[in-house]
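Postdoc handover notes: sequence design on the structure in folder B. Input C-alpha cells:
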C-alpha cells in the first residue's frame, strides 16, 4: 500500500474543490444569455400583437399572446374585451396601420412608442365616418409573465385623434 503525504493531499483537495465550484457556478455571462433570450422573445411577442392583430387584422393573435384575464390601466379585462376594442378600431379605420417607432425592454416589461394612421370610414366613439385621414401616437408598457401579456398601461393622443375627426371639447357649463 502506498502512503500519500497528507500535505500533498490537502493542497490538491483544496484545488479540486475550487475547480469543481468554478465549473458548477454559472458565470455572469452565462446568466445573461437566458435573460437576453427572454427579452428578445418578449419584444417579439409584443411586435407580433401589433403586426398581426392591427396591421393584418388577425384578432386570434390576442388568444396567443395575452393571458385569459389581464389588467389594462388598472381594469381587469378578458381577451374577448380586447378583441372587441381592436375590432372597433379596425372597423372604424379599415386601412389602420400601426408602426412601432421604438421598442425597449427590461426584464419582463416591454415598452413601445407607436404611430397609427388610418382613414375614418365608420362610426368611432359616436362620430360617424368622416373620410378623414388621421394620425395619432401612443405608448404602451406591457408586463409579460409565463409567455403571456398580463398587464398593460396604454397612453395615446385620444384628444388629438378626436379633434382630427371634428369633435369639439365642451367644458362643463359652456353653451353649445
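Designed sequence:
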Amino acid at each position: 500500500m502506498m502512503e500519500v503525504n497528507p500535505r500533498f493531499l490537502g493542497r490538491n483537495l483544496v484545488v479540486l474543490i475550487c475547480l469543481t465550484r468554478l465549473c458548477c457556478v454559472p458565470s455572469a455571462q452565462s446568466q445573461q444569455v437566458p435573460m437576453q433570450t427572454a427579452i428578445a422573445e418578449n419584444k417579439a411577442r409584443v411586435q407580433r400583437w401589433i403586426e398581426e392583430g392591427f396591421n393584418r387584422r388577425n384578432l386570434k393573435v390576442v388568444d396567443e399572446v395575452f393571458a385569459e384575464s389581464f389588467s389594462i390601466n388598472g381594469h381587469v379585462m378578458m381577451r374577448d374585451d380586447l378583441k372587441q376594442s381592436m375590432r372597433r378600431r379596425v372597423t372604424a379605420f379599415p386601412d389602420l396601420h400601426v408602426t412601432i417607432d421604438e421598442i425597449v425592454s427590461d426584464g419582463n416589461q416591454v415598452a413601445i412608442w407607436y404611430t397609427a394612421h388610418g382613414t375614418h370610414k365608420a362610426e368611432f366613439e359616436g362620430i360617424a365616418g368622416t373620410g378623414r385621414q388621421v394620425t395619432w401616437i401612443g405608448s404602451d408598457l406591457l408586463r409579460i409573465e409565463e409567455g403571456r401579456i398580463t398587464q398593460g398601461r396604454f397612453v395615446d393622443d385620444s384628444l388629438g385623434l378626436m379633434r382630427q375627426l371634428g369633435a369639439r371639447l365642451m367644458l362643463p357649463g359652456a353653451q353649445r
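Context for whoever picks this up: The helical segments are 6-24, 28-55, 61-65, 79-92, 158-164. Don't rerun without checking with the PI first.
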